[in-house]
Design goal:
about 325 residues, alpha+beta, three-stranded antiparallel β-sheet, elongated
């Protein structure tokens, strides 16, 4: 009876998370990241060069973005006509920009991103548990099959097939689930593993990592009672993310009062632009961040801002 109840629980959670992964529409950037009609006309009218750079610079001036392209340009999608938020990428299959895109999964025929990443993780977890449960309960009959302890009927071949299928899926799912657990612990996406995010100062592969606990909460939320359920509980809006930049943004050098933390005897300043309220509280837990004085900020040596150029990026 206990095995039967556990079987139905795993199966329901598996189906629920799989359904949510498939039918949860990926979130797109909000309207504030789309260029206005006048800015679009300016981009089309002006030749490539400083004029277009100025249009993008002006459009992104008040947006909470800190990442750049490899050449130092503002990340702009010329197909969606928007300034890309941090960790946002254009999916060539869906033909639209996806917030915190991880990858396009053919198994669910959907993009895995900010809106359904938690559902995808639970889908992998419950699929793995389901396959392990099937393999474990079928093991005794599989042993009897090899010891000729089963009646000589066609059912024994079904038992052999079921065990091998469950075992093979368990191996593949365990490796995939373990990989995504590592991504969550490091606060990375699959795309960011292959191409580290580039900030204004330099490339930083751990630029979005806030520590294991806070990284976990970004995906699963603050309420632990919702962690194992396929309900959306991720923190933030998908357009802006807390980050630990290693240098102060030279464009914001005049902004008073930064936040910093010390690591390996270096001062790590937090960007001065405000984050969404639902995300910025991740950075308020002591002793991660402490206030700095204006005198300390003045002592920082700013880095030259790279020239911004138009560049298409997926």
């Amino acid at each position: 009876v206990v095995c039967l109840v556990a079987y139905h629980i795993f199966f329901m959670l598996f189906v629920w998370s799989y359904w949510k992964t498939i039918f949860t529409l990926p979130m797109n950037p909000s309207k504030e990241f789309h260029l206005s009609y006048s800015d679009k006309e300016s981009l089309e009218r002006e030749p490539r060069g400083e004029s277009q750079q100025e249009v993008l610079r002006r459009a992104a001036k008040d947006l909470p973005i800190y990442t750049r392209t490899m050449s130092g340009a503002i990340r702009y999608c010329d197909r969606c006509h928007l300034v890309k938020p941090d960790r946002c990428h254009h999916c060539s299959v869906c033909d639209k920009c996806i917030l915190k895109m991880d990858h396009h999964c053919p198994w669910v025929n959907n993009c895995v991103g900010f809106s359904n990443y938690k559902f995808f993780l639970l889908f992998l977890a419950y699929s793995l548990l389901y396959c392990l449960f099937i393999a474990a309960t079928d093991l005794q009959y599989f042993i009897k099959f090899w010891t000729n302890g089963l009646p000589d009927t066609q059912a024994k071949f079904h038992i052999m097939f079921l065990f091998f299928a469950a075992a093979m899926f368990s191996v593949s799912l365990s490796s995939l689930f373990g990989y995504h657990c590592w991504l969550v612990s490091k606060n990375k996406s699959t795309l960011e593993v292959f191409r580290a995010p580039i900030f204004r100062h330099r490339t930083d592969k751990n630029g979005f990592s806030l520590g294991f606990s806070k990284n976990l909460r970004q995906v699963f939320g603050d309420e632990k009672k919702y962690w194992l359920l396929p309900v959306f509980s991720s923190l933030g809006d998908g357009c802006s993310f807390p980050t630990c930049l290693v240098n102060q943004d030279p464009e914001q050098a005049s902004t008073p009062g930064g936040l910093n933390s010390s690591s390996k005897n270096e001062n790590h300043l937090f960007p001065a632009k405000p984050l969404r309220d639902s995300q910025s509280h991740l950075l308020t837990d002591p002793p991660s961040w402490s206030e700095t004085t204006a005198k300390a900020e003045k002592g920082k040596v700013g880095m030259s801002n790279p020239a911004l150029t138009m560049e298409n990026e997926t």
